[in-house]
Amino acid sequence: MPKFAVILPAAGLSTRFGGPRGKLAERLDGQTVLDRSIAAFTQRDDVETVLVATRDASVTLEKVICCQGGTSRAESVRNALRIVPAHIEWIAVHDAARPLVSQALISRTFAAAMRYGAAVPAMPVGLTIKQATGPLPAKVEQTVPRDRLWAMQTPQVMRRQALLDAFDRCPIPLEEVTDDVQLLELAGHDVWLVTGEERNLKITTPMDLKLAELLLKAEGGGQKAE
Question: The domain 4-126+153-219 belongs to what CATH superfamily?
Answer without folding.
Answer: Spore Coat Polysaccharide Biosynthesis Protein SpsA; Chain A (3.90.550.10)
